[in-house]
Inverse folding.
């Protein structure tokens, strides 16, 4: 009985390590593995519009390896921090904000969308260099769509 359980643990660990390090493109979308924010694929659609399908990678806060992601070969990261991704985003930034900030200082490009989906609670996240992400408990309007365009000079 011990051999199969050891094998299962090794296979599970190996699978997690491979998927966490499988990022093979310089363009990355990061979100929680809970579900797509607001049940929409608009972020993936925007990444497809900008970088073309298959030219970017999705990784998840819960399984990614920051030391494998925040490297010079990664040139653009879109971090989803809203709806079902907020708790994982907040936890990640509380632990790795300095890693993210150092990557930006070294030339990395980052877009953060942080829109917690709790109308009863405000949220504040303090980042390096006096950057503060704040969401009020009530927001009067929200966008129902987003679009992206290819950056110039990349």
């Amino acid at each position: 009985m011990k051999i199969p359980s050891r094998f299962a643990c090794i296979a599970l660990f190996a699978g997690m390590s491979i998927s966490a390090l499988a990022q093979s493109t310089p363009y990355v979308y990061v979100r929680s593995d809970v579900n797509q924010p607001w049940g929409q694929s608009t972020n993936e659609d925007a990444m497809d519009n900008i970088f073309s399908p298959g030219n970017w990678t999705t990784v998840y806060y819960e399984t990614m390896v920051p030391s494998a992601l925040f490297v010079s070969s990664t040139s653009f990261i879109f971090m989803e921090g809203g709806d079902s991704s907020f708790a994982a985003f907040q936890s990640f930034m509380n632990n790795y904000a300095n890693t993210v900030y150092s990557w930006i200082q070294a030339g990395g490009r980052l877009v953060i969308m942080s829109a917690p989906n709790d109308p009863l609670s405000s949220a504040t996240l303090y980042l390096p260099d006096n950057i503060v992400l704040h969401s009020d408990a009530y927001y009067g309007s929200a966008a129902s769509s987003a679009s992206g365009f290819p950056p110039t000079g990349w």
Observations:
- Helices lie at 2-21, 42-51, 66-69, 86-105.
- The mean pLDDT is 77.
- The longest strand covers residues 27-31.
